[in-house]
What we know:
Number of helices: 13
Number of domains: 2
Radius of gyration: 21 Å
Enzyme class: lyase
Protein name: glucarate dehydratase
Largest sheet: 7 strands, parallel
Strand content: 15-25%
Helix content: 25-40%
CATH topology of the largest domain: TIM Barrel
GO molecular function, one term: glucarate dehydratase activity
Domain Mandelate racemase/muconate lactonizing enzyme C-terminal: 153-248
Number of strands: 14
Order of helices and strands: EEEEEHHHHHEEHEHEHEHEHEHEHEH
Shape: globular
CATH superfamily of the largest domain: Enolase-like C-terminal domain
Amino acid sequence: MKRPKIIDIRATTVAVPLEAPLRHSNGAHWGKFVRTIVEVETDTGIIGLGEMGGGGESAELAFAGLKQYLIGHDPFEFEALRFKICNPTASLYNNRTQLHAAIEFACLDIVGKHLGVPVYDLLGGKLRDEVGFASYLFFRHANEAGEGEVRTLDQLLDHARELKQKHGFHAHKLKAGVYPPDYELELFRALAHEFPGDTVRYDPNAAHSVEEAIRFGRAIEDLNNDYFEDPTWGLNGMRRVREAVRIPTATNTVVINFEQLATNVRDPSIDVILLDTTFWGGIRACVKAAAVCETFQLGVAVHSSGELGIQLATMLHLGAVLPNLVFTADAHYHHLKDDIIVGGLMKYVDGAIAVPTGPGLGVELDREKLGQYAEYYRQTGGYPYDRDPARPGWFALTPNTRWADPKTGA
């Protein structure tokens, strides 16, 4: 059987609407996700799919610039792919980790389709048929229709109940760091008490000082916490919090490569490593990192970076093969109004999504939707992730002291 060779790479930026703008400690998602969809074409006619966050013209040009490295490349040669794009010393001058991830997704998709097997079979075989997810709650601005705001206690609990009823979540994560810590503490405790049989996790995106993180952590020690995610910035800051608070720490910001993981093994700061298929540079890197975590008894979970269906598929295949996955995954996915894959949005059942079983990633592009949301991007453009539409001139500090007003949201 002829092995495929890469003959072209195409990148298309899309914007897909959200139910409402999502707020976080550094700014907001302004009512949509902007993603770059990558298609890697081969001489056998197989097209592999990849996805990367953000993008626009700069991302499309970056992928176009990689053609000179990859035309004629054999998609089976994953280690050669890694060094062609992400040689560690060369990458000091051109950080290509996220570009590599999208192309690796596509190459895994190609190999799976070529062999007629799902990606999870290329990664050691699946251990589970579905991957569980947390509800992933955000403070939200109202949408253009004046609906969907999440700011008050009642709005948060109503939204959490709605998501649990609709999707069946058994774990609830609050993306925080928007309002003053005491206000968020009140709401987080109420959230935990609303669902006493479920687990909770608090993530202020490193907005707190070490001292504030310790104070907040001690005030929630009695709750059914999965972990305390990125309450402060840096490995040393997280180490100090870990020493003072009796909740496992977690991160997707300060342990996102193998050098940082080695440092964390030598001088423990983080108990649970949140593996993001984009931030780590691909699915295979996450599987390797999970094996290191298994060796040193560190927890792992699957992290979300604002996915559409292609990247969600990578998360599902990753979650399917990890023997040490005991936590539910994160996903922004239920905040989306649509998707660019055939069949539309994947469905949650009892808080979980089934792992695709078709060849490759098991998802296909809906060409009509791809065109529709590429045009929507051209009409509306991107947005500054690290700014908030309700707070002109505002920007976050680390640690932050510039909180939004709980009474107005501004």
